[in-house]
Amino acid sequence: MPAVVEKDDVHKEAEAELIKNIVEVKPSNEIQNEVTQDAKKKKKKKKKKKTGTPDNEEVAAETCETPVNGKETQDSEKCANEQGDQEAGTGEAKKKRKRKKKPAIKQQTDPPTIPVSEFFPNKIFPHGQECEYPADKDGRSAAWRTTSAEKKASDTSYEEMWNDFRQAAEAHRQVRKHVQEFIKPGLTMIEICERLEQASRSLINENKLDAGLAFPTGCSLNNCAAHYTPNSGDKTVLTYDDVCKIDFGTHINGRIIDSAFTVTFNPRYDPLVEAVKDATNTGVKNAGIDVRLCDLGEVIQETMESYEIDLDGKTYQIRPVRNLCGHSIGQYRIHAGKTVPIVRGGNQTRMEEGEVFAIETFGSTGRGVVRDDMECSHYMKDFDLANQHVNLRLPRAKRLLHVITENFGTLAFCRRWIDRLGETKYLMALKSLCDAGVIEPHPPLCDIKGCYTAQFEHTIILRPNCKEVVSRGDDY
């Protein structure tokens, strides 16, 4: 049988144990106070974290790791949620900071209608091909011009004028690209010219004498080498076997770009086209300050005559058209006085710094000589009489002269352009102006019938420090 404990001793031990427990256990109000204080500490730490204190990460870690009355799991979840909210807030801020969209790149329409000036908001237009001047006959290099500070400063002083040429050249390049895309057999010559001229007017942003076309569009065919553009009613159609010379000009403030190329569809004419293109490039390469014009004509002739062409079983040496030539260009003056021959034996006049030249060559399978032929379409006011008073009898002639002066000045024009201005029944008045010497007619220039002629042309600027082939493009 178990041993029996006395009642008094048991009671004494129980009371002693109870008193011990009462001393060790904290009152519930103290526990509540501790919880409240811990919560306050958490709030302070959260505020510090939001204000971006240096110890953000440490505070967050301490807050997440501190347990209170067995609530460790709940607090850690709460902390994780708070961090997630902060990251979400940062994401929203990033979304609000939207990047500025880059402006869309403007593209030319087809057919071209947007002025080239709109593609260059700073009004600085692309340079043409810039070349070092050729060495002289004694082999002395002209490289010093490229590095000379004096020549660079002189060049900079003309930058505004060069920029006018470059704007006109950029319009010319875009227009001829358009022409090369649409021109094909079956189109009438009037349609070709009007489409080309419409594009030119749009891209140059035509404004009477401030900007516009420098001369009528030449589209001479086969044995006709130059100065043909169709008059109203001309029904000539371009055919597969034609050799067509497209020669047109643009200008800004009278700074003229004169450039031409030849269009063929039958590959049998390729040697003729290649010969003339090579001759023009040779002339451009050898042109420069102090170069004698006669020397330029000699190298052009040698280049062109090195080519032959087989047509219908007969071989022809390609000849330069000796009474056609390139020329210097002045402001509002397409032919400024100096001529650039394409055969040997010309005058010994030299090219000079600051001058602008059209280097153009004509090759022929015929005699190599042209003469006036066909109905006249090109006209131009005499530059030397531009500011002089001329007595005219016919009132109609006076009125027509006023229209010409206001719209074309001393630039070349054609009858289609007068028609476009709304003038009618003006042929007698135009003849009267030609008879008085105020207006000069420039009829088509043709070699013998049955032969073929080709043409290429570039405008070059003899800048103080380099030569700029301002009309150069990817096509020629």
UniProtKB/TrEMBL annotation:
<comment type="similarity">
    <text>Belongs to the peptidase M24A family. Methionine aminopeptidase eukaryotic type 2 subfamily.</text>
</comment>
<keyword id="KW-0645">Protease</keyword>
<keyword id="KW-0378">Hydrolase</keyword>
<feature type="binding site">
    <location>
        <position position="258"/>
    </location>
    <ligand>
        <name>a divalent metal cation 2</name>
    </ligand>
</feature>
<feature type="binding site">
    <location>
        <position position="327"/>
    </location>
    <ligand>
        <name>a divalent metal cation 2</name>
    </ligand>
</feature>
<keyword id="KW-0031">Aminopeptidase</keyword>
<dbReference type="InterPro" id="IPR050247">
    <property type="entry name" value="Met_Aminopeptidase_Type2"/>
</dbReference>
<feature type="binding site">
    <location>
        <position position="247"/>
    </location>
    <ligand>
        <name>a divalent metal cation 1</name>
    </ligand>
</feature>
<feature type="binding site">
    <location>
        <position position="457"/>
    </location>
    <ligand>
        <name>a divalent metal cation 2</name>
    </ligand>
</feature>
<feature type="domain" description="Peptidase M24">
    <location>
        <begin position="165"/>
        <end position="361"/>
    </location>
</feature>
<protein>
    <recommendedName>
        <fullName>Methionine aminopeptidase 2</fullName>
        <ecNumber>3.4.11.18</ecNumber>
    </recommendedName>
</protein>
<dbReference type="InterPro" id="IPR036005">
    <property type="entry name" value="Creatinase/aminopeptidase-like"/>
</dbReference>
<dbReference type="InterPro" id="IPR036390">
    <property type="entry name" value="WH_DNA-bd_sf"/>
</dbReference>
<dbReference type="InterPro" id="IPR018349">
    <property type="entry name" value="Pept_M24A_MAP2_BS"/>
</dbReference>
<dbReference type="GO" id="GO:0070006">
    <property type="term" value="F:metalloaminopeptidase activity"/>
</dbReference>
<feature type="binding site">
    <location>
        <position position="258"/>
    </location>
    <ligand>
        <name>a divalent metal cation 1</name>
    </ligand>
</feature>
<feature type="binding site">
    <location>
        <position position="335"/>
    </location>
    <ligand>
        <name>substrate</name>
    </ligand>
</feature>
<dbReference type="Pfam" id="PF00557">
    <property type="entry name" value="Peptidase_M24"/>
</dbReference>
<keyword id="KW-0479">Metal-binding</keyword>
<keyword id="KW-0963">Cytoplasm</keyword>
<dbReference type="InterPro" id="IPR000994">
    <property type="entry name" value="Pept_M24"/>
</dbReference>
<dbReference type="GO" id="GO:0046872">
    <property type="term" value="F:metal ion binding"/>
</dbReference>
<feature type="compositionally biased region" description="Basic residues">
    <location>
        <begin position="40"/>
        <end position="51"/>
    </location>
</feature>
<dbReference type="InterPro" id="IPR001714">
    <property type="entry name" value="Pept_M24_MAP"/>
</dbReference>
<dbReference type="GO" id="GO:0004239">
    <property type="term" value="F:initiator methionyl aminopeptidase activity"/>
</dbReference>
<dbReference type="GO" id="GO:0005737">
    <property type="term" value="C:cytoplasm"/>
</dbReference>
<feature type="compositionally biased region" description="Basic residues">
    <location>
        <begin position="94"/>
        <end position="104"/>
    </location>
</feature>
<feature type="binding site">
    <location>
        <position position="457"/>
    </location>
    <ligand>
        <name>a divalent metal cation 1</name>
    </ligand>
</feature>
<comment type="function">
    <text>Cotranslationally removes the N-terminal methionine from nascent proteins. The N-terminal methionine is often cleaved when the second residue in the primary sequence is small and uncharged (Met-Ala-, Cys, Gly, Pro, Ser, Thr, or Val).</text>
</comment>
<dbReference type="GO" id="GO:0006508">
    <property type="term" value="P:proteolysis"/>
</dbReference>
<dbReference type="InterPro" id="IPR002468">
    <property type="entry name" value="Pept_M24A_MAP2"/>
</dbReference>
<feature type="region of interest" description="Disordered">
    <location>
        <begin position="28"/>
        <end position="150"/>
    </location>
</feature>
<feature type="binding site">
    <location>
        <position position="227"/>
    </location>
    <ligand>
        <name>substrate</name>
    </ligand>
</feature>
<feature type="binding site">
    <location>
        <position position="360"/>
    </location>
    <ligand>
        <name>a divalent metal cation 2</name>
    </ligand>
</feature>
<dbReference type="InterPro" id="IPR036388">
    <property type="entry name" value="WH-like_DNA-bd_sf"/>
</dbReference>
